[in-house]
Amino acid sequence: MKKILFSLITVFLLFSSVLIVPVSANNTFDIDINVKIKQNGDGIVTQKWYGSFHEGTENYLPIGNFAKGMDVTNFKAWDNNGQFEFIDDWDIDASRSEKARKCGIVEENDHYELCFGIGNYGNNEYYFQYTIVGLVGAYSDKDGFNFQFVNPGMNCYPTNVAVTIQGENGKKFNENNCGIWAFGFQGAINFVSNKIVAKTYTPLENEDRYVNIVVSFKKGLLSPIRKGEEKSFEKLLSTAKEGSSYGSYEDNSDKLIIIAIIGAIIIALISSIVYGIISIIRKINLKKFIKKCDYYRETPCNKDMNMAFSIVDRFHLNKKESSIIGACILDLIIKKSLVPMIDKNTSFMGKVKKTVDIKIGMQPNEVSPSANLYNILIKAAGADGILQEKELKKYCKAHPSLMRDFINKTKQNGEVPLEAIGPYKKNINKCSEEVKNQVSQVVGLKKYLKDFSLISERSVEEVEIWEDLLVYATLYDIADEVMKDFKKIYPNLTENDDFTQYVLISYAYRNLTYSAMLSGEAAQRARNSGRGGASSLGGGGGFSGGGFGGGSR
């Protein structure tokens, strides 16, 4: 019986091993690409594929889709043990042993396939090099290229990719003479030590990921032989940016730039004179209107903060557009949609450091600017629902358009009902009586809050009322002064010092959010203009060179 049982177990183990053997690990590797740009615009490309190879007989790279005047020559491959033998008539069906330490080219109708043998399985490093004749094209405004260095649809995805582009004989590439953009992957492209360096941050793990690089060169830096098919580099770049996260490209090196500058100066002078006169008239009319406004003791515009913010912004009652962020944050704190978490830590030197994180609470049950801001903050907080200062700063810098859209849409949402009872103009005298009534409420409340400690009449008797007024004081950017007046006049209502903290927190988070947004917008402008930054997952169309597929087979 024991013999029979032993035999059955043996058979089972053998059978299991047979089932397991065919399931070999996929090839996984990283790619380093070095591109040396020659004076004539040719590019010498050296690729290093290194990683774990456990299946297939060869690695290969399809490359085609060439612009007129482009070609691939001088293909060779090697590893740490020396150069591979080049085979003129490469046979993709040959065995792994037959392909070992050999390389060759398969010529298809519309592309080449650069091939080299895998050889022994395991951890390997392979190098191959080829020259892209006419990589850089000459255009009317700049020289440049849009080239695909890593194809989409590879059957084994590169985990990490780095592309370094440098000039021959120490020629320097920097933001003074080049523009750089990258498409098809999550990562970045930047100038590093007078070279162009692009890196992926995540694996290219689906067939929609690729590495396309666009570079412009100032005229005279190179002497490209190939003439670009498009009339201008601007057109080439515009095509590449379609479907991408880059903004529009503005070329400042056209031949008519001098005429444009002169024209712009003349127009600017005339416009500034006309606008100056109009602005003076508006200010005079607004000053007279504000002087006539009476105190207003309630929440203005029927509690529509969109309308109030639009009025504050249009008539410059507060020059800080960021005030809407602070007002909404304070409003959310009061409604317990945001819950401050204050932590004090004492260092070994005895210094007390205070950190303020915000816990995301219940979503506001309303349609308001505060609810719109809440939806942004909950994304910034992440899965743990705790919003840290550094976390919010990083998020707003990476997504500046979200906060910019929030500010602009709040203004627009306020303009709609005002224009419906309009006219709603920048000149207060040209507004309708209905609009003037709404403006007088917003102006009157600001006057009331500013003069609060001077007014003998006292009408604020409930916490809910002065909480609302404090939110609008934040909108006017006077909440700190108003809070002091409240404390003097209503010590019983303000005996809880939490609200002083809440006002300070709303100010701090407002400043942090807005400065991060501005920093992100500045980075975005630099990125759009070709000075480097984050790559775009989409776009990159109109490229020359590259193809689909590749990897191992």
Description:
- The longest helix is centred in the middle third of the chain and has 36 residues.
- This protein is α+β, with helices and mostly antiparallel strands.
- The chain folds into two domains: 224 residues, Immunoglobulin-like (Sandwich); 224 residues.
- The two termini are 49 Å apart.
- Strands 5-4-9-2-1-12-15-14-21 form a nine-stranded mixed β-sheet.
Helix and strand topology:
Blueprint: H1 2-20, E1 28-37, E2 43-53, E3 58-64, E4 71-79, E5 82-83, E6 85-87, H2 96-99, E7 102-107, E8 111-117, E9 122-133, E10 137-138, E11 143-150, E12 158-167, E13 178-183, E14 187-192, E15 195-200, E16 211-217, E17 226-227, H3 233-241, H4 257-292, H5 305-314, H6 323-334, E18 338-346, E19 352-360, H7 369-381, E20 386-387, H8 389-398, H9 400-420, H10 433-450, H11 463-475, H12 479-489, H13 498-528, E21 533-534, E22 551-552
Parallel strand pairs: 1-12, 6-7, 10-17
Antiparallel strand pairs: 1-2, 2-9, 3-8, 3-22, 4-5, 4-9, 7-8, 10-11, 11-16, 12-15, 13-16, 14-15, 14-21, 18-19, 19-20
Number of strands: 22
Largest sheet: 9 strands, mixed
Beta-strand residue fraction? 15-25%
| Principal-axis shape | elongated
DSSP summary: helix tally: 13
CATH class of the largest domain: Mainly Beta
**Classification by helices and strands:** alpha+beta
Spans where pLDDT lies below 50 across 5 or more residues: 1-25, 249-257
CATH fold name of the largest domain:
Immunoglobulin-like
Compute the CA-based radius of gyration.
33 Å
Mean pLDDT: 86
